[in-house]
Design goal:
By secondary structure, the chain is an all-alpha fold. The chain has 8 helices and no strands.
Length: 192
């Protein structure tokens, strides 16, 4: 039986609204979808935000709720609250890079119109979690994404030659960390 008083229940419900809104948007700029779909998108994002806020109201130490708010607040025009949610999630769980990933994604997609800050955040994650190979690969993913935007005519915020050199360097370190992790514990469950 589903208990609406559990933060996990609210998280799943919020994720359902969030995913539905993204499906309606179809990966397009809001200005390129119909007014009806824009309204459905806005309502879905508001409802997702409401459910995630309810989850952290039920349990103020529910860091997964704050991580989802990092991603949902910008879609509701609440950019400053995304950064506050990041700080709260890091305070609750200082042992995981997940808040860094969510905040870098927030900057990556341009909600804050500062993609370079996404690089800085992931570099911080690499420094803070040098034994977690996923931090390296998230950074590489962000650089690849940035370079790929150039072929679609979008302005990019990095020097392509530097980015390729950086990718090779970080990839090498990431694989070294990954190999060491697997050697130490081949049955790693990737619980981070």
């Amino acid at each position: 039986e589903i208990n609406p008083a559990y933060p996990e229940t609210r998280l799943v419900l919020g994720e359902a609204y969030h995913i539905y809104g993204l499906e309606v948007r179809e990966g397009k700029y809001l200005s390129r979808i119909s007014p009806e779909k824009r309204e459905i998108f806005a309502n879905s994002m508001r409802e997702a935000k409401k459910q995630f806020e309810y989850a952290v109201a039920i349990n103020p130490n529910y860091y997964r709720g704050y991580i989802r708010l990092i991603e949902t607040y910008p879609e509701n025009g609440l950019i400053g609250l995304a950064e506050e949610s990041f700080k709260r999630a890091c305070k609750i769980r200082p042992d995981t890079p997940l808040p860094y990933f969510a905040l870098s994604k927030f900057y990556k997609y341009g909600y804050a119109n500062n993609p370079r800050k996404g690089y800085t955040i992931l570099k911080e994650a690499i420094k803070k979690f040098p034994e977690n190979p996923i931090t390296y690969f998230r950074y590489i993913d962000l650089l690849y994404w940035e370079i790929s935007m150039k072929k679609y005519g979008h302005p990019i915020h990095v020097n392509t030659k530097w980015a390729i050199k950086e990718i090779k360097s970080v990839r090498k370190k990431g694989y070294q960390v990954l190999e060491k992790m697997i050697e130490k514990n081949p049955e790693n469950t990737w619980n981070y």
